């Protein structure tokens, strides 16, 4: 049991929860259940950030992804009309998907283990929340605002498309 700290066990449990939520999100058939599984995955990832001592990223993960993205998904689900028909996947498609995911996993693991990571870290004083805010709102303010306008246009477009569906 050498090397089994509480932090390692928490990281392992949260990782399994995040992967499980992602698998449920892919395999569930009802869209609302899929959105809830995705929110569960996002919360698990926020927990992983806490175990990595990145509390700011954990809070951002909860606020932006778990909160805003999941609410936007549910909002989009409520605006569109869904048919009750569900399609069954064929066995060869599921097998091919499993082989593809396994190959992707193997490729990613190979790339991670072949990448030489340096053990050096940058100066912690330069990477604070204050410096991040200064960079976002001073140096990158135009891309930040363009992204917010783009998201607003996408939301308005989704509402317009949903209104057109309800008229026909």
Automatic annotation (TrEMBL):
It is an enzyme of class 7 (translocase). Its main location: membrane. It comes from Desmospora profundinema. The chain crosses the membrane at residues 6-24, 31-50, 56-79, 91-113, 140-162. It catalyses: a quinone + NADH + 5 H(+)(in) = a quinol + NAD(+) + 4 H(+)(out). NCBIfam families: PRK06638.2-3. Its EC number is 7.1.1.-. It is a multi-pass membrane protein. It is found in: Cell membrane. NDH-1 shuttles electrons from NADH, via FMN and iron-sulfur (Fe-S) centers, to quinones in the respiratory chain. Couples the redox reaction to proton translocation (for every two electrons transferred, four hydrogen ions are translocated across the cytoplasmic membrane), and thus conserves the redox energy in a proton gradient. The keyword Transmembrane helix applies. This is NADH-quinone oxidoreductase subunit J. InterPro entries: NADH_UbQ/plastoQ_OxRdtase_su6 (IPR001457), Nuo/plastoQ_OxRdtase_6_NuoJ (IPR042106).
């Amino acid at each position: 049991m050498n090397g089994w700290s509480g932090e390692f066990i928490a990281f392992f449990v949260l990782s399994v929860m995040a992967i499980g939520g992602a698998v449920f999100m892919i395999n569930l058939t009802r869209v609302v259940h899929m959105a809830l599984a995705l929110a569960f995955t996002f919360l698990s990832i926020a927990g992983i950030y806490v175990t990595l001592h990145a509390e700011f990223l954990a809070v951002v993960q909860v606020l932006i992804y778990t909160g805003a993205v999941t609410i936007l998904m549910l909002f989009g689900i409520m605006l569109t009309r869904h048919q009750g028909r569900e399609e069954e996947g064929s066995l060869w498609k599921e097998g091919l998907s499993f082989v593809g995911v396994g190959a992707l996993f193997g490729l990613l693991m190979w790339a991670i283990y072949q990448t030489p990571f340096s053990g050096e870290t940058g100066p912690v004083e330069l990477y604070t929340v204050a410096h991040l805010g200064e960079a976002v709102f001073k140096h990158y303010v135009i891309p930040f605002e363009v992204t917010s306008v783009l998201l607003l246009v996408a939301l308005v477009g989704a509402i317009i498309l949903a209104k057109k569906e309800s008229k026909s």
